[in-house]
Amino acid sequence: AAKVITQLKRVRLQLNGLTTLDAATAKALTESPKKWDGRLPKLTTLDAATAKALAEFKDPVLYLNGLTTLDADAAKALAEFKGGGFCTLILNGLTTLDADAAKALAEFKGGKLELNGLTTLDADAAKALAEFKGGEFCALNLNGLTTLDADTAKALAEFKGSLNLDGLTTLDADTAKALAEFKGKGLVLGGLTTLNADIAKTLAEFNGQYLSFSGLTTLDADTAKALAQFNGSGLSLSGLTTLDADTAKALAEFKGSRLWLYGLTTLDADTAKPLAESKAWDGQLPRISAFESPDSVEIAAALATRKGPLSLRNLTKISPKTLTALIEKEDVEIPLIETLELIQEPDGSPTDDFVIPKGFQSRQKRRQQGR
Q1: What is the reported pTM?
Q2: What pLDDT shows up at residue 367?
Q3: What local confidence, expressed as pLDDT, does residue 362 receive?
Q4: Cβ distance 46 to 68 under 8 Å?
Q5: Quick one: which of 361, 359, 357 has its CA closest to 339?
Q6: Residue 249: which of 278, 223, 269, 226 has the closest Cα?
């Protein structure tokens, strides 16, 4: 049946209800590239022979989230999956993994290994996973871990790719110190909702390329000052919705090449000024949709001084004077002016008619076409 179905033209086969699979059927599925979507979310068990057949799949993603257990032999067979391009092996249904199975999976040479169902991980299994052979650009996702002891963190620190630990909600000093020794490119800690200056100072000693704290919604100036000492190229704080002036000044000291603050929904003038002066900030403000505070003109004027692109691509409401101040910057990205709602001046001053500067609309349309 699998052979027949995979020969049909213009078919993309989905088998989301399949609960059992033998090696011969798996082989029939994988022999017809682009026919099957690579997903078996309800397959709960897998023997080595079937795993070996599935490893011949030629598409980039093999999705086996239904597996709740995996022995070393089946793991060894799955690790041979080469897919196409930056291939991904997804095993998020596993809640535990012993050291032997971890060691076998670490032989996987693809781009990403997802094990987000693991809620616990001992140091021996972590040490084995740290040998993941995907190369420096690979990623190991362990986003189900809600706690991490120092010994396990020390073992994971030997991994050479990007380590995603979005499930961690707290981090003690010893674990932070172990993670700071991480040998890989990027450390992602998106589950942390709070961070103090001492832990931030420790994590900032990480010598990789980027640190990500997308779960932080607030940040004080002392913690920001500690994070700004990170010597990598990228610092992501995309969960922050607000930023005060002192914290913005501290972050502006970050010497890397990219500072991400995608979550900001509001700005005041005192914050906009140091932010615009930051050489690392990428100028993206996708969640600011309106300028409605009394200091809107001052905010816009401050942002317009930024050296480098400024993007407010989801802007909907703005007053004429604020818009005039904003578009003093030639490389600002905003929606087409005719789609914006022009509102009364928020500071109560007279609202004048807005006159579109000569050439601005054509410049704006060229930019949108280029994007």
Answers
A1: 0.91
A2: 67
A3: 74
A4: no
A5: 361
A6: 278
Beta strands in 52-136 (DSSP E): 61-63, 88-90, 112-114
Mean pLDDT of 347-357: 89
Q: Rounded distance, CA 178 to CA 81, Å?
A: 31
Helix (H) or strand (E) holding 310: strand 310-311
Phi/psi of residue 131, nearest 5 degrees: -90, 5
In this prediction, residues 278-304 reach a mean pLDDT of: 97
CB 54 within 8 Å of CB 27: no
Q: How far apart are CA 47 and CA 169, in angstroms?
A: 35
Distances (CA, A) of 100 to 95, 145, 199, 370: 15, 19, 33, 51
Residue with tokens 């607030």: 218
Residue type, 368: Q
Coil, strand or helix: which one is 318? strand
DSSP-derived secondary structure for 217-233: ----HHHHHHHTT--SS
Structure tokens at 19: 């609960």
369 pLDDT exceeds 70?
Answer: no
- Report the number of secondary-structure helices (H) and strands (E) in the chain: 15, 13
**Phi, psi at 309, each rounded to 5°:** -60, 150
Give 332's strand partners. Answer: 310
Cα–Cα distances in angstroms (integers) from residue 256 to residues 86, 136, 184, 208, in the given order = 27, 20, 17, 12
Q: Average pLDDT of 291-303?
A: 98
Q: Are 216 and 195 in contact (CB under 8 A)?
A: yes
- In the numeric block, the tokens 């995907």 are attached to 134
Query: Shortest CA distance to 155 belongs to which of 204, 188, 199, 122?
Result: 122
Give the separation between CA 205 and CA 188, rounded to whole angstroms: 15
Report the half-sphere exposure of 355 (CA within 13 A, side-chain side). 3
Encoded tokens for 312:
């407010």
Give the residue from 123, 133, 128 showing the smallest Cα distance to 89: 133
CB 121 within 8 A of CB 91: no
**How far is CA 238 from each of CA 60, 211, 243, rounded to the nearest angstrom?**
28, 11, 11
Instruction: Quote the DSSP letter at residue 38.
Output: S
| DSSP letter assigned to residue 47 | -
> Both ends of the chain: CA-CA distance in Å?
46
